[in-house]
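PROTEIN DESIGN WORKSHEET
SECTION A - STRUCTURE
LENGTH: 170
TOKENS:
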């Protein structure tokens, strides 16, 4: 005679619900872990200032010149949008480098040439102030594993720190 099997549906439902809760918790923790890794790259520095967007942009351009670096190029989605009649918060990427550093960089590592010029990113905050974000040259060039490049990056770290200090102060 075959055994009689009885199913207790309330126990099965509780186990299924517990399994679903476990799956959701694991998925949520995996998403949170992935979100933590999607933040700024190492060596990224952001400074919120009391200056308005246009004022900070002018201050950064002046500090770049004062520290004898070259403003190689600039790009601004907000200025491009404004030209089309669209208003978005201000943003401006200033690309900064100097030829003697370019020559040294390429002598140390041709692939590192991809990183030049280095960037300073100005963004308008909702309260009307602006922030300045950049990656330290040391962090930018570190992956190339070159002592000569690391030495040059140390020099650039000091220059960029001074540019940022001068542009963002009071």
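SECTION B - SEQUENCE
RESIDUE ASSIGNMENT:
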């Amino acid at each position: 005679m075959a055994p009689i099997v009885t199913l207790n549906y309330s126990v099965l439902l509780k186990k299924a619900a517990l399994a679903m809760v476990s799956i959701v918790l694991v998925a949520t923790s995996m998403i949170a872990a992935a979100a933590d890794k999607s933040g700024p790259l190492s060596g990224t520095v952001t400074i919120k200032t009391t200056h308005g967007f246009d004022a900070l942009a002018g201050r950064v351009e002046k500090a770049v010149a004062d520290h004898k670096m070259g403003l190689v190029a600039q790009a601004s989605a907000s200025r491009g949008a404004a030209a089309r009649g669209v208003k978005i918060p201000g943003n401006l990427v200033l690309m900064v480098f100097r030829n003697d550093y370019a020559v040294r960089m390429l002598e140390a590592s041709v692939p590192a040439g991809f990183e030049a010029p280095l960037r300073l990113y100005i963004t308008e905050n909702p309260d009307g102030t602006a922030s300045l974000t950049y990656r330290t040259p040391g962090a930018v060039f570190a992956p190339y594993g070159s002592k000569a490049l690391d030495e040059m990056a140390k020099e650039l770290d000091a220059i960029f720190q001074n540019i940022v200090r001068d542009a963002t102060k009071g």
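SECTION C - NOTES
The first helix runs from residue 9 to 37.
The chain has one domain: 44-168.
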